[in-house]
Design a protein that fits this description.
This protein folds into two domains: 46-67 and 86-238, 3-Layer(aba) Sandwich (Rossmann fold); 251-327, no CATH class. Helix content is 33%, strand content 22%. The chain has twelve helices and twelve strands. The chain has helices at 58-65, 88-97, 105-108, 115-125, 131-144, 163-175, 193-210, 221-227, 245-250, 255-262, 266-269, 305-308; strands at residues 7-20, 30-43, 47-51, 73-78, 81-82, 98-101, 181-185, 213-218, 230-235, 238-244, 314-315, 321-322. The strands form two sheets. An eight-stranded mixed sheet has the order 6-7-8-3-9-10-12-11, with helices on both faces. Strands 2-1-4-5 form a four-stranded antiparallel sheet, with helices on one face. The structure holds adenosine-5'-diphosphate and magnesium ion (MG).
């Protein structure tokens, strides 16, 4: 955990709007607001959690930050450089300093590349080292993700490995260039619980060793609490709460965060946590575009105020903030 609050990533009012539906019938084209004017900063050396249910815009946020996609509006800065402006050598440099680990290692690995080629490829692309030194670096990266002895795995292919092993390979590849910033997008959601814990431990070790900054994306608040210094909660593309991991779990302010806590399985929950009951069984009527984004599902909402006005993210105190009129 770090005390210095120097930002490495600054996200300034980013929105991402996808067009979906049958483009043949232009009128029926529907706009999906995957992210709605999100602003936040990620500090150097921290593990920052982005939490929300499926479809809330988490992957979109990760893909925008590593520049796999461009935002519809807003700006993203890494080390004070606006990433949409990066070109040529600067862009190549960015691609080596910023890495993403994807949810599904089977899709993210090239089935035709051996483990050795997969893990060493970024060094080839960035022209780093020679055949001999590369082998040492690959060996060490594979050892650090728990693929031991590394030589036994060099000439295997993705289909010859388990899901957990494949994700370890993807992590080894992501760390091979010593990145400063790593996005891990639900890296264990396809894996068993016991393997998930091992992967979390590896991520923690790597983050420490590289002194990297980690954006950990998850639908699971308990997992985020285990790993993260700070947690941001998003609901349908809107940032609703942001604070130290401990505060967000122990003292959730937003009715949606409270509903996420209620939804944690009992074995995590124990009887330690209060139950909040802030989620309506059935959505009430309301417009999607005016008022609080959570209005239709929020049990404690005020019928007029919350349906008409959109709360902004208030700083409760220096570090814990929430977008709710009644928190
Ligand atoms: N390429 C795309 N085209 C159209 N809609 C998309 C695309 N990618 C994501 N979406 C939509 O954007 C919203 C957010 O998706 P996503 O970022 O994948 O959420 P999460 O990772 O939290 O599950 C969803 O409604 C999803 O269907
Ligand atoms: Mg996702």
């Amino acid at each position: 955990m770090k005390n210095d609050k120097e930002p490495i990533v600054q996200i300034d009012k980013i929105s991402k709007i996808y067009k979906s539906g049958r483009s043949f019938f232009k009128d029926s084209e529907k706009k999906i607001i995957a992210l709605n004017q999100i602003s936040l900063q990620i500090h150097k050396g921290e593990i920052f959690g982005l939490v929300g249910e499926s479809g809330s815009g988490k992957t979109t946020a990760g893909r925008l930050i590593v520049k796999l996609e461009e935002p519809t509006a807003g700006k993203i800065y890494i080390d004070n450089n606006e990433i949409s402006q990066l070109k040529g050598k600067e862009l190549k440099d960015f691609r080596s300093r910023v890495q993403m680990i994807f949810q599904d290692p089977y899709q993210s690995l090239n089935p035709q590349l051996s483990v050795y080629d997969t893990v060493s490829e970024p060094m080839t692309i960035h022209n780093i080292g020679n055949a001999e030194t590369r082998q040492d670096v690959v060996w060490e990266a594979m050892r650090s993700v728990g693929l031991s002895p590394p030589d036994d795995f060099f000439y295997r292919f993705p289909h010859q490995m388990s899901g957990g092993q494949r994700q370890r390979v993807a992590i080894a590849r992501a760390i091979i260039l010593n990145p400063e910033f790593i996005v891990a997008d639900e890296p264990t959601s396809m894996l068993d619980a016991s393997i998930s814990i091992q992967i979390f431990k590896i991520l923690l070790e790597i983050q420490k060793k590289l002194n990297a900054t980690l954006l950990f994306i998850s639908h699971n608040l308990a997992a985020a609490r285990y790993l993260c210094d700070r947690i941001a909660v998003i609901y349908r593309g809107n940032l609703v709460e942001l604070g130290p991991g401990r505060d967000v779990i122990k003292n959730p302010k937003h009715p949606y965060t409270q509903a996420l806590i209620d939804a944690l399985p009992k074995y995590v929950h124990g009887n330690k946590f209060k139950r909040y009951g802030t989620l309506l069984k059935e959505e009430r009527e309301g417009s999607e575009n005016v008022g609080c984004p959570f209005f239709r599902r929020c049990k404690v909402a005020h019928r007029t105020k919350c349906s008409r006005e959109r709360p902004s993210l208030n700083r409760e105190n220096d570090s814990h903030s929430v977008s709710c009129f009644y928190s």
